Amino acid sequence: MESPLTDKRPPYGIIAILMIGAFISMLNETLLNVALPSIMKDLDVNASTVQWLATAYMLVNGVMIPATAFLIQKYTVRRLFLTAMSLFTLGTIIAGFSHVFPLLLAARMIQASGSAIMMPLLMNVMLTSFPPEKRGAAMGLFGLVFIFAPAVGPTLSGYLVEHHSWRILFHLVSPIAAVVLLIALFILKDKKGKVDLTLDKFSLLLSSVGFGGLLYGFSSAGDKGWDSPEVYLTIAIGAISLVWFILRQNKLEKPMLNFRVYKYPMFALSSVISIVIAMAMFSAMLLLPIYVQTIRGITPFKSGLLMLPGSILMGIMSPITGKLFDKFGGRVLAVVGLSITIFTSYMFSKLTLDTTYTELMILYSVRMFGMSMVMMPVMTNGLNQLPARYYPHGTAMNNTLQQVSGAIGSALLITIMSNRTKTHATELADSAMKHVTGKPTAEMVAQMKQEIAMKAMLEGINDAFLVSVGIAFVALVLAFFIKRAKQAEDPEESKASQQKVVNKLAEN
């Protein structure tokens, strides 16, 4: 990557601007989680529909990110960042003035198209700016900024939603995004020589249909059920397109997304573990606000405040984890972190109508502590094994799979919650009717329905958390196979150096 990164000293100014941009886009994503119940009420949509605000965001990321490996190699950091920030700012402004759900959803998708470029771009700059032995600490700093957004997001969102409309969340972010865009316009300056790369349009179509089909299918299951043709046909079309896309990439000389990164075992392992973790991680992020606000009637501000200590703890741990990774490697951290995550997820599957606020806060904080030891060390260990020219492909692959698995995981867990809620509601209603003596009054029936709905939703949430325990356990088993990765030799560079030797011998 011929850009600002040809200097020996890391380009801290560029990294700072990229981090602020990534922070704002991350903040905007977490701001919305606590606001979902308010949006459901205001725009008159159900849980399966409103989760599309999170899923569609990840859907666009999943479709866009495969192209970022090509974009990072083809264009300058300046050009990519300005395009990404412009799209993000435009989407945020539209979202702030949305009065119907489809417009809000479209605005979120415009935001996501900008966010999709920012994350891999920042990670690629970080990888090419620091040597492997300093990369853990650098990625720890990256994680700190990354995690500070979730720390601030839910609490800030809860306070604002309680005192204003949820639209204030977008009105707050849009001017900050515009200022970052202006600063970047004047400060970001980097050059790139002309790169002879063309995007294979058919590959882009296949990846869009592939990732998009899978995400749409899984996300629709909550509303339409797994037996709906719209669900299983889109999943089938997505899977076929994805297989076709992978086969095509392996035949191309310059693929859009290079699947040869999976020849490196530690990268392949880290990729699988990251997918599983992303699926499990979304359980608490999506299910907890629904439990706290809808079932327990806790205010949005207190709901956000509940998550603050955990997010702060995760933020504090991030640079420490980075240094521990440089010293001990990824396996120990991943095993300990995943064990904590499994235990806390299991405890979350035992929620009752009387679980105290303090218990919830402690459980969530311990869960975040566990998570802080896993994601960044596992990902960094995998990327460390790749030759430098594979970094854009490695980061794009990781980010794509994380978004796709996160969206599939969240859709799957919401679907499990919805379906199990219906099952429990039927069971509870049958049980209640057996114990009713005489003819119940309309008031009694209404109260009974409300109690059944609450208890059924609670059991549905518990079942979804239990599934996340199983998902996290798979990651724990895989974590035992992690080894400290050393950068592999680039086969192309080896061939080139061998050719030079041959040429010199021929000359002599």
Automatic annotation (TrEMBL):
Top-rank taxon, per record: Bacteria
Residue intervals of the Major facilitator superfamily (MFS) profile domain: 14-487
Pfam families named in the record: MFS_1
Entry keyword Plastid: no
Region named Disordered: 489-508
Name assigned to this protein: MFS transporter
GO terms, molecular function: transmembrane transporter activity
Membrane topology (UniProt): Multi-pass membrane protein
Main location: membrane
Subcellular locations according to the entry: Cell membrane
Family designation: Belongs to the major facilitator superfamily. EmrB family.
Sorted UniProt keywords: Cell membrane, Membrane, Transmembrane, Transmembrane helix, Transport
GO cellular component, one term: plasma membrane
Originating species: Neobacillus cucumis
Secretion signal span: none
